Amino acid sequence: LIPETRGNPIEPFLHQVEVASRLLFRKPIRVLIADEIGLGKTITALALLRKLTKIGQVKRALIVVPRILINQWITELRRIGIERSINRIERDTIGNLANRGFPEGYYISSMDLIKRDEPPYRYFSKIRQVLWDLVIIDEAHRLGIGTERLEKIGKLVGTPDVNVLMLTATPHRGIPEDYLTRLILLDPYLVPGEHLNNREFYSLTHNVMVFRRRKEEVNKIYEKREIFPPCDFNAL
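Above: the chain's sequence. Below: its structure in token form.
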């Protein structure tokens, strides 16, 4: 599952393989991968993307990220062997891509760009018409309750049969309604309400809808060695 790379090899971790293996047999895949920062959420997502492409389940994939991360994602796509058909959605490319009917391939865009729908470009209207096989949303916590990002990107992934991978290291920012809104986006069959904000519901989502691994778990349970050394905090 974890692809071979040239030059700068990826060292696969068991927690990445575990999550990718569990999700590979789902149809559709609609989950939040919320591992702590540094645990390789991007590699887990790209492993799934590459495998689903190889078995013919994904022909058009949309990757939605903060603008600052676009080049990093393109680098990682190439690192795992995806060289061709990488399309960057920008002001000077959207017209040509739309005229060509968004041919099969991998598309990457800023989450603040694709929500725009004013003429003449109408990014959102054009992108919404595409039948995406997989949508990956990095830094998914930016889809906050009441934001235009949530409203627009939510419409892209609202169809229950679309594969959706949300990635974030900070899934819950202290506002239950905000967190639950993203879970409801993943599972439209959930009925919104205060009844979801309880320990029982959250426990039911673990390793089902939400996958979160901590560095301590990776050290002690998965790898059984100190992959991540302890950190000392000192106040100055």
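The beta strands are 30-33, 60-65, 86-88, 105-110, 134-138, 163-167, 210-211.
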